Amino acid sequence: MSGNKPEGRTVEVLELPENVDEELLSLYFENRRRSGGGPLESVEIKQNRAVLCFEDAEAAARVLSKRHHVVHNSELSVRKPPSKDQSRLLLRGVSPYTSTEMIELYVENMMDLNVTDYALIPSPEKDFILIHLSQPLSKGRMGVFLPLFRRRLEMMHTNN
């Protein structure tokens, strides 16, 4: 494996057909003639998408540059995975009946923030909310905050 960062070697595959297993996906993306890829370090399949980490960034770049990927007669959508921005948190599954004020108070209390330290951006359906922080959250602090926040949101969701 080369010493380059995993972010540059990672590709996300969307719209996987139901009957595609990890072995077939690995064989396809390791085949340079068919996919443009090369040796894989890891494959992680979740529902109808997969995250592939190649040994070399060049293989990931070739896969991304190739426009047409077909497995089991199904076209796959391949993209660079979204970046993990430590200054943005996406909360999914929020009840549309949960007041913005309750979420604001909870964010401020849980994260020890002032109202000027963040902005809440709800989706049009109000089923998810983007929390945009003025300063990135440290990984350790995010790891403590997110599970607690999700549990509290679930409780608020069931109470409404």
In words, what does this structure look like?
This protein is of the alpha+beta class and 160 residues long. It has two domains: 6-79, RRM (RNA recognition motif) domain (Alpha-Beta Plaits), CATH 3.30.70.330; 88-159, 2-Layer Sandwich (Alpha-Beta Plaits). It contains six helices and eight strands; from the N terminus they run H-E-H-H-E-E-H-E-E-E-H-E-E-H. It has helices at 6-9, 22-30, 32-35, 57-65, 100-111, 139-159, and strands spanning 10-14, 40-46, 49-54, 69-71, 74-79, 88-92, 118-122, 128-133. A five-stranded antiparallel beta sheet has the order 2-3-1-5-4. The longest helix is centred in the last third of the chain and has 21 residues, at 139-159. InterPro entries: Nucleotide-bd_a/b_plait_sf (IPR012677), PAR10_RRM1_2 (IPR034464), RBD_domain_sf (IPR035979). It comes from Xiphophorus maculatus. Pfam families: RRM_PARP14_3.
List the helices and strands and how they pair.
Blueprint: H1 6-9, E1 10-14, H2 22-30, H3 32-35, E2 40-46, E3 49-54, H4 57-65, E4 69-71, E5 74-79, E6 88-92, H5 100-111, E7 118-122, E8 128-133, H6 139-159
Antiparallel strand pairs: 1-3, 1-5, 2-3, 4-5, 6-8, 7-8
Helix pairs in contact: 5-6
